[in-house]
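User: I'm curious whether this sequence folds into something compact or stays loose and floppy. Could you predict its structure so I can see for myself?
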Amino acid sequence: MIGGGRVMTREKMLDFLKRIADGISVMFGSNCEVVIHDMENDQSSILYITNKHVTERKIGDKLDVLGITEIDELSKGIDLVNLKGKSKNNHLLKCSTFHAKGTDYHFALGINYDYTNMLMVQNAVAELTRVGDDINVVAGEKDENLEKKLDDLYKKAVDHVGKPIPFMRKRERVEMIKYLQDNGAFSIHKSIPIIAEKMDVSRYTIYNYLREIKEEQAN
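Assistant: Here's the prediction. I'll summarize afterward.
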């Protein structure tokens, strides 16, 4: 509805959402995709899209919502704000979706912002501003302190490589694991499953990296 209790027609609402989409795209730049879905036509859902290179979708594509695991929540008309998603090229996205319903329409306005390059900048700044000594794991500390130290070591390891995880090649991932090993990360209880989850790889992959590091050091 709009001011004075008047109901927007389908055409006026769609035009209104398109103008919002264009405005958001201009305001936040080429890394920000804004898409309008027809929630009543999931096989040809996308009615309008800006900066479509972000998720490589186009007008007429079926409903494919980024950043959530349960699409049922979206179809019920529940707004979803600031969720984490990934694009087809494995870039990181911040995703929000807002609904607009009328007697003959149900639209959803989706905003997907690719913040992968921002992480690159963050890593560069962190490297320049980092101070203090390396963390040494002290036996007997409380679990929450050890978890915090593991999280700090993980962030330092990412900074050491200088790239976000999605951009790392295998040799850089191995270098990151070596940094963690050299700084005592794997002496912390349950460190391997925690690190595997953070890197979005299996525990088996972490063990393989550690074995490769050991074999290389032996040669």
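Summary: Confidence is low (pLDDT under 50) at residues 132-141. Residues 75 and 101 are 12 Å apart (CA to CA).
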